[in-house]
Amino acid sequence: MQVTVKILRYNPEKDEKQHYESYQVEADPTDRVLDLLEKIKGYQDGTLAFRRSCAHGICGSCAMRINGRNRLACKTLVQDLNTTKITVEPLLGLRVIKDLVVDMEIFFEHYRAVKPYFVNDEPPPEKERLQSPEERERFDDTTKCILCGACTTSCPSFWANRNYLGPAAIVAAHRFIFDSRDRAAAERLKILSDHFGVYHCHTIYNCTDACPRGIQVTKAIGEVKKAIMTGSLD
Ligand code: SF4
């Protein structure tokens, strides 16, 4: 089948602003959008810039807007889009470096701000820090995050104020706040209760819709809000 791929292009060395360019590509219904971008770059226009790494839904590099919705290009099949017209744009809310490549620095700055690592200064037990299956289940969903940025860059609150830590940072914090072995929950909750924390979330659910890992992002944010308000992790 023939598909038309319309890409929002921008080369800072010669373009004053972003503009669309269209490409005709021969595709199989089971081709992924990433395959189409590779064909365009390999055979039609080698200047096209986009991020990719694992190409199997694990690294999170190829998040972009596909037909108006944030998705991973490596997980989006042509047949899933139900159209032969495919529009590909960079993630919203971040500075475009070139074509589909955006500057992720503020995204990772917000991620680092919530201490996304295990904190426990108590002397380690002889064997291991035990945890029951129920305690592990408490934060299982948020362990699946691959830091693709699809949630944060689909959030109108983030578009309006890039100081808002955003859904991905809150998901990262949730993963440790509800880990029974960690000891920095209070510190993280304080960070998230401040002016740029969870109260910027207006429960719009774009983040949950966008997440390629199926994480219940809005639910996780709600659990963090509840922990702040009640002072309890139950
Ligand atoms: Fe990507 Fe989902 Fe993690 Fe957000 S929560 S960064 S959408 S994997």
Word description of this protein:
The chain has a 5-stranded mixed β-sheet with strand order 2-1-5-3-4, covered by helices on one side. The protein has helices spanning 33-44, 105-113, 133-137, 156-160, 167-177, 185-192, 206-210, 217-230, and strands at 2-9, 19-26, 63-66, 69-72, 85-89, 96-98, 101-102. The chain starts with a strand and ends with a helix. It has 2 domains: 2-102, Beta-grasp domain (Ubiquitin-like (UB roll)); 105-230, Orthogonal Bundle (Fumarate Reductase Iron-sulfur Protein, Chain B, domain 2). It is an alpha+beta fold and 234 residues long. Iron/sulfur cluster is lined by residues 60, 145-151, 167-168, 171, 210-211, 213, 215, 217.
In short:
By secondary structure, this protein is of the alpha+beta class. It has helices at residues 33-44, 105-113, 133-137, 156-160, 167-177, 185-192, 206-210, 217-230, and strands spanning 2-9, 19-26, 63-66, 69-72, 85-89, 96-98, 101-102.
List the helices and strands and how they pair.
Layout: E1 2-9, E2 19-26, H1 33-44, E3 63-66, E4 69-72, E5 85-89, E6 96-98, E7 101-102, H2 105-113, H3 133-137, H4 156-160, H5 167-177, H6 185-192, H7 206-210, H8 217-230
Helix pairs in contact: 2-5, 5-6, 5-8
Bound molecules: iron/sulfur cluster.
Keywords:
alpha+beta; Ubiquitin-like (UB roll); 2 domains; five-stranded mixed sheet
The helix-strand sequence is EEHEEEEEHHHHHHH
The pLDDT mean sits at: 97
Main beta sheet: strand number and arrangement? 5 strands, mixed
**CATH fourth-tier homologous superfamily of the largest domain:** Alpha-helical ferredoxin
Distance linking N and C termini: 53 Å
> Strand order across the biggest sheet?
2-1-5-3-4
